[in-house]
Each structure stands twice: as C-alpha cells, then as structure tokens.
Amino acid sequence: MNRREFTLALGAVLAATAMPVWAQTAPAADLPVVPDMAIGNMDSKVVLTEYASYTCPHCATFHSEVFKDLKRDYIDTGKIKFVYREVYFDRYGLWAAMIARCGGEMRYFGIQDLLFANLTEWAGSDDPAKVVDNLRRLGRTAGLEDAAMDACLNDGAMAQAMVNKYQADSEADGINSTPSFVLNGVKHSNMNYADLKALLDAELAK
Question: What is the total count of domains within the chain?
Fold first, then answer.
C-alpha cells in the first residue's frame, strides 16, 4: 500500500463507519494494555519491527517470500528480536488481528502464517458476516475454540485499545506505507531478502 492509500485508510479506520460501534465506546482509562508481539532474542541489540496489515497483499507477499528466510537465519538463531505491529486499514484487518491475538503469544505467529497464506480466501468477500465465518474457520484450524473467539471478537475495549496503539505507534515512527520496517530506530520501506540481510548484518557487526 502506498503513502496516499495509507493516509486515506488511516482516516477511514478511525471513522465510525469503518469499524464496529463497540470499538469506540470504552473510556480511555478503562482500556487494556495491548502488548507488542515479538519473537527471537528478547535481549538482542538488533531489533527489527515490522508494520503490516493482514489485508495488505504486499505484506502477504513479504511473508511468503522474505519472512521465512528472515525467521530461519536471524530470528530462530537468536540473532535479533523481531516485533510485529499491526496496521488496521479496515474492519477485516482489525478482526483478523483480534483472532490472531486470541491465541495468545504462543499461537500468534502461527495464526499469522494462516492469515497471510489464505488472505484472498478469508478476506475475499464484501459480506462482513462471511469474513467473520472465514476467520473463525482459520481460528479453528489453529486450535481455537468458538467460545474463545466469540469473547475476543466482542471485546470492544481491546478493539479500541488496539486501534489507539496502532495510531500512536504509526505516528511515532512515521509509518506511511505497508509493509514498513524500523531497524534499531531507523525506518525502511519494503525490500527483498538480500537488502534486508545486508542491513541486519551491518547492525549485528556494530
């Protein structure tokens, strides 16, 4: 997604018509804390943060073509800490993130793999009810119970807190496209694995 589309979507997702009504009802003081989702070496000096949306085709492509190598070479080996921050362009992306978080930290990245790998299938409908049904099916594949998913999808305070965090984080890091990356405080746009590897190796060598 390019800068113009990102800017338009940022406004839309905060509008009443672009997100569930319940997601705008909780007082700020009552909102839960929304943790970053991270894997790898939590103590690494190299921290790579990805900003991406579950409804972004470019993000899905990154995860199918680059992330698997990144995970194998840098995350699973404990070289870096990888943080994933969700961007919400629409209700579908928010709901997908709520399903992913419903599995807790242990299941989050596994559910993420399912969401990106099956993006066109679960998000390819104009009927919100159909999309929710599709997300539930993916959740069941990951071992989530219907009752748990109901609770997660109907947690209005968490939904609002997630949108608030998304807005604050993206503004703080100057995010205007997806996927975007912040490597030790420096922002980068989407890239191939060779370019990302070069950046990571340079940081690790410092």
Answer: 1
User: CA 53 to CA 93: how far, in whole Å?
Assistant: 6
Let me know: does 160 contact 24? Beta carbons within 8 Å. Answer: yes
Distance in angstroms (rounded) separating the CA atoms of residues 177 and 157: 27
Q: Which two tokens stand for residue 164?
A: 């608030």
Q: Which amino acid is at 46?
A: V
- Which element (helix H / strand E) includes 187? strand 186-188
- Tens of pLDDT, residue by residue over 108-124, are 999 999 999 999 999 99
In a domain, 206, yes or no: no
95 is written with which tokens? 């709901």
* Chain segment 91-103, per-residue pLDDT in tens: 899 999 999 999 9
Per residue in 128-151, pLDDT tens? Answer: 889 999 999 999 999 999 999 999
Nearest Cα neighbor of 102 from 146, 164, 55 is: 146
For residue 13, give its domain range: 3-200
> In degrees to the nearest 10, what's the CA dihedral of 95, 152, 97, 156?
60
What value, to the nearest 5°, has the Cα angle with vertex 131 and ends 57 and 8? 50
**6 vs 104: CA distance, rounded Å:** 28
Write the CATH number for 82: 3.40.30.10
